[in-house]
Amino acid sequence: MDTGTGYLLNRDGSAPLRSGPSADCSTNITVFSGRLSYDCYVVNSAGNTWTHAQYDDTGTRGWIWDGNLNDGGAQTPC
Fold this sequence. Notes:
It contains no helices and six strands. By secondary structure, it is mostly beta strands.
C-alpha cells in the first residue's frame, strides 16, 4: 500500500476517477480539486500507468490516469 498523496494537474480543472485502469471504464466521480490518497499503481494494456486512489473530499475510490496527477501517481505497484 502506497502512503503518497497528490493533486490534479490543472490542465482543464477536472479528471475522472474511473472504475478500472482504462479510459474505457466508467467514471465513478469527476475530481475537480482536493487531495487523492494513493493505494498503488498498474500499467494497463496500452502501457499507461494508473493509480488506484481515494478522493479524500468524498471517500470515493477508483482509478486515475497518472498523467492527470501533479506527482505522477503512486510509487507502489498493485
